[in-house]
Amino acid sequence: MAAVPAQPAQGNEYQFWTDPVLCEETRARLEHFRSLGWLPPNFKPKTLQGIAVVERYWRRFCVHVEEGDYVDYLLREEHAIYMNFFDWMFRTSREKVLQSYDEYWRRLCQYYELFAHRRVSEDAHKQIRRYLEGRFPAERKIPRRTKDKNTLDVDVFCVLYRHHWVHSRFFSHGSLIVQFATVQLWSAITGTRPGVLVPQGTTLPDHSTLGNRKRPHAFESDLPNYVSLKELPDSVCYRDIELFYLKDPQSKRDVLCAIIEFRNLKGRPEGADGTKFFMHGDYQLAYCPIAQIISYAFRDGAFVNTHLTPELIWRLRVPKHNSSLPLRWRSEVLNTPLLRRLERTPYGYELHRSLPMAYESSRQALKELGRDARFEDDIGHYNYRRWTANEVNKNFTSQERQRVLGQSGDAVFEKHYQSQFIGRDLQHVVLLRPPQDGLVRFAGSMLRKRDPNAPSELTDTHKRAICQHPDILQLRREMRELAAEMRCLAGGVKKAQTSYPHLYQRHDNVKKEIAKLRKKLATDTREAARKDHFQNAPVLEVDRQIKQLLGESDDVSDAENSGDESWELPIPNYIFPERARLVENFYGPNAENFDEDKLLARRIQVTKDMVALLRLCEPSRRGNRVNWNIDGEEDLLEQPEKSPSPPDDILKCPTDICIICCGTSRQSASNPAPRKFSSKRQDSLRRHLINMHLAHVRDGISCNWEACRNIPRFADVTKFLAHASTAHSYDINIKLCHLDQVSQIKCNKISSAEVSSESENRQRTETPASSVDLEMSNIDSRLLESRPVTIAQSLTVVPDTQISASSVESTMSDSHPISDEVPIRRSTRIRAKLADLTPVTVARQSTREMRSSPEYCKADKQLNRAKPEVERSGNSDVSVKKPLPRRSKRLRSQ
Ligand SMILES: [Zn+2]
Ligand SMILES: [Zn+2]
């Protein structure tokens, strides 16, 4: 925890009570308080966003029914008017699930409160509730639920978590790889709301849709401004973590433990106390939350004891006369979040110094992780919370559960969290059949619907079909014609840039449109193929077996012969040896050797590797992407060379590689060699240098070569290029005219919807763009300003997709129904992983017994509950616009 300077006893403290307060004075102040009037609610940005949506609907509705005074109309409190409003909404807007209308009604009530200075009357409220629960959905066939809300179980968690460490290529920066593991681990251990770990709703509105939405009327929003009262980011900072050694009577080593306080809890005022969770070092290193925390601390230089190293930290002891020994944080880092986002710098992606990791990147990563691990159902943060909630419910009292989940009563848990699946063998209990607990547990697990053969990447046939899509063909024709016209008029496409800018611009736009369309088609195709597989593969399998049983088929089943091995995906080759070693120590053959000395050695190695990995970033995978463009307009980059010949001159930089990538590569032996560009295509190297590096120069650039460490920062790019030319004999003929565009790129880059490379996709969730201002980016900036807003702006900024997205968010944070029981299946492969979930002080051998003991598998009476759902529509709509960070893998060249 924070190093709080002890308060000295203050003898000369000011004695306030000695001031005389006059009666008149106090009475006069009453007028002051009267003048304050009604205090408006300080809605949080997420709520404001929701109200803003309803506000727009309401004002449009009033225009439509020709009611000039929309406030008066709202305040009439006639329930028929509100019913009419929802009916109009249903008839004029995109299809929504029932839960969205519930959300709109809640927001409309808040909007009402702003004008009425009181709540909507109980009577009107009840009427609308009844309407929305009964008549409204029944008459319009509005679905009450759209998909299952799964809980995880320990088996699924272990599969996912392992898949993340071993297979996932979603993140290329080491810090995000480890941070995402931490998000999963903390979510699992604490069941905390995801928004507590990483701030929600920091995604910027999608500007690409601005042009498509034109609104006829302008209005001024009536919403109040959000005033932030908190000083700390919405994420766990060093000050929230108390790190200390505890004496372990059962071991000769003391255990490093942490107490983490989760602030920013829902329903509590900002700055109020949070909930504290205890975590301890674990002998299964993959699942050791402490190893991750101290790795971040080493990365950030957070320890007061600057000479502490990964070798030493695991060997410190609690002094005899004490029962614990805390490790203190440096005061400079107290308010720094541990989980942070990336920012784009001239040298590539680097960890931001203060801004927390974005919720969206974690959400997207989790979804991709589930799909990549071949689960049929998507995985979300709330699956973790529901899982913990159900486990806690099995083992703890109701009061303890409320405490853990931060809920004030049983109602929310029972209604939205409790598993729908009855995880007990009722045939055993009622009919007295032999118990089949193992079967029951597996039946309720998401693993049942996992299929390692499910497609996760596009096939060549898919890619060809996309290239032959009529819209793509049409756009390509258009682009060809424009190019031909420019060649005819100006003698070349490049030359037309100055002489025929309108043609060049149109050409450029069409090109971007093609990229966008391809991206969308690729996502749709991939998702359709996945759904199709899960739907049809079982049917084919049943047919196959029927044929076989009837003796009509002579092919011997592969699946039966290959056995369980086929379940394991091949372990990929890692770019960084650190990650390879981590995977080896987490999941390799020696991972279960708990001999004290060997464990200590592995612990130290894991910590060292993790600290190193936190600073590494894989190079852009752009070169691996499939080349869609047959015209050859795009870069044809060559694969990186495995081992470049060491240069003769230590300072000379070859002109077929990028000088900055080269500098980065030489900074650490773990970094791969820079990509070699074909000597014939020096223009693509130039483009790379400008777009990947020089365009991101903000205040000067320094040479990142080791030898130039002491050369001061260059004020501008030209000076840097001069240095490259003289000191490194590196001249790739970058003309000044290209550099002029740099500043332009700098401004456009971020809002550009045409970000194409994988790393740039990530930029949209992890860059300074979304981090400009945490509070501001939560919400349309105009809602935060005091000046009037115009409808043209505010309407476009929150498009329909966001309406449902925001309603999803808030329903999610309120409550979540669950669908599955949480079964525990024992299998040899997973057993070791299970061990992590039992306290370290438990004797190691007893772990297995514990897991299989009846109390552990005790299930509760569960209630089946049907719940309306919103997630599907929200997610699928939003996902179309979301970046496809794994695209390069899926589309890897044929
Ligand atoms: Zn480079
Ligand atoms: Zn240099």
Can you put this structure into words, describing what you see?
The strands form 2 sheets. A 4-stranded antiparallel beta sheet has the order 3-2-1-4, with no helix packed on it. The chain folds into 5 domains: 45-144; 154-201 and 213-425 and 797-890, no CATH class; 460-567; 577-613; 639-752, no CATH class. Strand 5 (340-345) and strand 6 (348-356) form a beta hairpin. With 894 residues, the chain is mainly α. Helix 2 (45-64) crosses helix 5 and helix 14 runs antiparallel to helix 15. Helix content is 49%, strand content 4%. It is globular, with a radius of gyration of 30 Å. One zinc ion binds next to helix 28. InterPro entries: DUF3435. This is FluG domain-containing protein. Residues 883-894 have a biased composition (Basic residues). Residues 843-894 are annotated as: Disordered.
In terms of topology, how is this protein built?
Layout: H1 23-36, H2 45-64, H3 70-75, H4 79-92, H5 98-116, H6 122-133, H7 135-140, H8 154-166, H9 174-190, H10 194-197, E1 241-246, E2 255-262, E3 275-280, H11 289-299, H12 310-313, E4 324-327, E5 340-345, E6 348-356, H13 359-372, H14 381-395, H15 398-405, H16 411-417, H17 426-431, H18 437-444, H19 460-467, H20 470-490, H21 493-499, H22 501-549, H23 558-562, H24 577-587, H25 596-613, H26 659-667, H27 682-693, H28 717-727, H29 736-751, H30 758-766, H31 768-771, H32 774-777, H33 781-784, H34 791-797, H35 800-814, H36 828-834, H37 846-852, H38 854-857, H39 871-881, H40 887-890
Antiparallel strand pairs: 1-2, 1-4, 2-3, 5-6
Helix pairs in contact: 2-5, 2-35, 5-6, 5-35, 8-9, 9-14, 11-25, 14-15, 19-22, 20-21, 20-22, 21-22, 24-25, 35-39
The structure holds zinc ion (2 copies).
Residues 658, 660-661, 688, 692-693 line the site of one zinc ion.
